[in-house]
Write a structure and sequence with these properties.
By secondary structure, the chain is of the alpha/beta class. The chain has 13 helices and nine strands. Strands 6-5-4-3-2-1-7-8-9 form a nine-stranded mixed beta sheet. A hairpin with a 4-residue loop joins β7 and β8. It binds iron/sulfur cluster (2 copies).
Length: about 350
């Protein structure tokens, strides 16, 4: 039986203000006690599982570093008590990582996905919220030596904006040359990708893929995925919603997956099937939202359906698309959603 995943929003705030961010920021956060409650709920929900993955994710988890430390120590004890492996993960924008926190994370085998979209100090799609909107890249550049020391626990994520598509290869090369072995590349969601930009994105991934020297040592799910696809076709993974994952937000609401996080909390909660502080499992909601898909968007309404694939095989792209959907109605833009859909469908077929 595969491990089950908890996506836990330990807080809903961020010190950056990225152009492509699709989450609504609020000051709400979970205390360590709340996190313990969430973890116990999750373990009970998937009682029979052989093991568990806890992701402290979305927004900026490092803003809750002291509570993450406590959670990791708690989870180590829980793992021993249950006799089951529990792994922990965290994406971060990296600006708050320090020698002390990285050392703690290494000691406790906590895996980190570090966002570095660009090494250009003027890059302005990821700006600091409280520093006159200046680029966050110089903050990361100052920490490059530190990151290099901890490259064993850092996985790099490059998010590509459509108008930056010509820079993917050079950013990738620079990061490879520096030290990193594990690099993922992904397109920004919720922004318009023209046909031409989609073409350049795919062509660039193919170029990277065919530079065999890189591929040999490359530990990247982006490229493992395409390598596998070349031999076996797209990997059908099925939808994990409620079957092998749940999402718990900072308000203690429990959802089938994290596709609902882009709603502001007051709208989001109507899709929750339970609440940590007043547990009352709502099976109807659980079943309804477990079956919800980006391509068949019953939440946005019948007039907002998105094209279906001829043969539905629920690839990795499908869940990525779902998580990327800017579900806030006011931001809905059919052209944007369709362009994201077409790009991901092409990514599924990149081996052709
Ligand atoms: S770092 Fe992540 S959560 Fe923060 S603004 Fe950027 S995309 Fe959003
Ligand atoms: S996008 Fe296509 S493959 Fe994915 S769930 Fe929808 S119909 Fe199936």
């Amino acid at each position: 039986m595969s491990k089950k995943n908890l996506f836990l929003s330990i807080n809903e705030w961020c010190n950056l203000d990225c152009t492509y961010c699709n989450v609504v920021k609020t000051p709400k956060k979970l205390s360590f006690k709340d996190c313990q409650r969430a973890i116990i709920y999750f373990i009970n929900f998937f009682k029979g599982s052989d093991g568990y993955n806890i992701y402290f994710m979305w927004w900026e988890p490092m803003l809750s570093y002291p509570d993450i430390q406590k959670c990791i120590l708690f989870l180590e004890k829980l793992s021993l008590k249950l006799g089951k492996p529990i792994s922990t993960f965290m994406p971060t924008n990296g600006t708050l990582l320090t020698e002390q926190s990285l050392s703690f994370f290494r000691e406790h085998n906590h895996q980190i996905s570090l966002s570095i979209d660009s090494l250009d100090g003027d890059y302005d799609y990821r700006n600091l919220r409280d520093r006159d909107d200046s680029s966050s890249v110089p903050v990361l550049l100052d920490k490059l030596d530190l990151f290099q020391e901890y490259s064993d626990i850092l996985r790099i994520k490059i998010v590509v904006m459509p108008d930056m598509v010509d820079t993917i290869l050079s950013t990738f090369q620079e990061l490879r040359k520096l030290w990193f072995q594990f690099i993922n590349v992904q397109p920004a969601h919720g922004v318009l990708w023209t046909e031409q930009q989609q073409k350049v994105y795919i062509d660039t991934l193919l170029r990277i893929k065919f530079i065999s020297e890189w591929i040999k040592n490359l530990k990247s799910t982006t490229f493992k995925w395409t390598q596998r696809a070349e031999n076996d076709g797209p990997q059908s993974i099925g939808c994990a919603k409620g079957r092998s994952e749940i999402f718990i937000d900072s308000y203690g609401q429990v959802y089938v997956c994290d596709a609902f996080l882009a709603y502001p909390p007051e709208k989001r909660k109507k899709y929750a099937h339970d609440n940590l502080y007043n547990p009352n499992f709502n099976r109807d909601r659980f079943e309804e939202y477990r079956d919800w898909k980006y391509c068949n968007n019953t939440i946005l309404g019948n007039d907002r359906d998105i094209t279906h694939c001829e043969t539905c095989d629920e690839t990795k792209s499908c869940s990525t698309l779902c998580n990327a959907l800017p579900v806030n109605d006011t931001e809905y833009d059919r052209d944007v959603l369709m362009s994201n859909f077409h790009l991901y469908r092409k990514l599924d077929k990149v081996w052709i």
